[in-house]
Write a structure and sequence with these properties.
By secondary structure, this protein is an alpha/beta fold. Helices cover about 45% and strands about 15% of the residues. It contains 12 helices and 10 strands. The strands form 2 sheets. An 8-stranded parallel β-barrel has the order 1-2-3-4-5-6-7-8, surrounded by 6 helices. It has a two-stranded antiparallel sheet with strand order 9-10. α1 links the parallel β1 and β2. α2 packs parallel to α3, α3 packs across α4 and α11 packs across α12. The longest helix has 21 residues.
Length: about 290
């Protein structure tokens, strides 16, 4: 399926040092998995986590799920070895933390290429610093292999010396700016994590906020968050039905020589048809993924 339509409603971080977690991930209904070598792994477990993640990606045992491995930053003692391992792992993408500008993108791609990475290996960029927000266009334009922006809202709030609030007011400007640049440059964009695992309603509310803002999906920290996230970021049955009505109504109007149509009392023009067609395409892509 086209990369822009590939479902990324739920993107679950899994600590790569935990083999049980990697095994469990094979049966979880997440659209994508991030095998984490960075925040979720202690310094003394970095080498083990790297080997686990590479082996898991190479196993091809995760069905149609997109597999991403988050490296440590190149400025750390582990970053270069991480990218070298990811290059030949068979993963779909490498996720680079602490991206501050185009130079970080260039350095990561150079390291991947020197290690023999295929050109199909994409680079996902964590957007989690004030510098990253100020240089979003530079990062997006750095390479066609930059496929996705991943919000690191925890680090961003920390660096802003702001407060964590359910409505994410401290980072709303940054979130909106990242969506704007992602759309301008044709990138996927994922909302940050929600840490209060027990607060299901709070999590759902933040998913709805992300959907309303234009995010393609959300990064997750716990398997219990996958199913509600999938439901919220998927077109509802009502939206699918309305999309079909819009397309059918507009086609009938065109056949009569009209440039607009009326569907359920609302005016419909070409832009609404374009949105309706995308809704149906996303719906079909999700159904295809579910078929395994």
């Amino acid at each position: 399926m086209p990369i822009s339509l590939r479902p990324r409603r739920s993107v679950l971080y899994m600590p790569a040092a935990n083999t049980r977690a990697l095994e469990k991930a094979r049966s979880l209904p997440a659209d994508a998995l991030i095998f984490d070598l960075e925040d979720a792994v202690s310094p003394d477990a970095k080498d083990v986590a790297r080997a686990n993640a590479a082996a898991a990606a190479a196993s091809r045992g995760y069905g149609k799920r997109e597999i991403v491995i988050r490296a440590n930053a190149l400025s750390t003692p582990w970053g270069a070895d991480d990218l070298a391992a990811i290059a030949k792992s068979g993963a779909d993408a490498a996720l680079l933390p602490k991206v501050d500008g185009a130079a970080d993108v260039a350095a990561a791609l150079r390291a991947l290429d020197q290690a023999g990475a295929p050109q199909s290996l994409m680079l996902w960029c964590m957007i989690e610093t004030p510098r990253a927000i100020l240089r979003l266009e530079e990062i997006a334009a750095a390479s066609e292999r930059v496929g996705c922006f991943v919000m690191g809202t925890n680090d961003l709030v920390k660096d802003l010396r702001a407060q964590f609030t359910p409505d994410q007011i401290a980072v709303l400007t940054s979130l909106s700016q990242t969506v704007l640049v992602a759309r301008a440059y044709g990138k996927v964009v994922l909302d940050g994590v929600y840490n209060d695992i027990a607060n299901v309603e709070g999590f759902k509310a933040q998913c709805r906020q992300g959907l309303a803002m234009g995010f393609d999906g959300k990064t997750l920290v716990h398997p219990s968050q996958v199913e509600p996230c999938n439901e919220i970021f998927a077109p509802s049955p009502q939206e699918v039905d309305r999309a079909r009505k819009i397309i059918d109504g507009f086609e009938r109007a065109k056949a009569e020589g009209k440039g607009v149509a009326t569907v359920d009392g609302r005016m419909v023009e070409a832009l609404h048809v374009e949105l309706a067609k995308r809704t149906l395409a996303v719906h079909e892509a999700i159904a295809e993924l579910a078929r395994g």
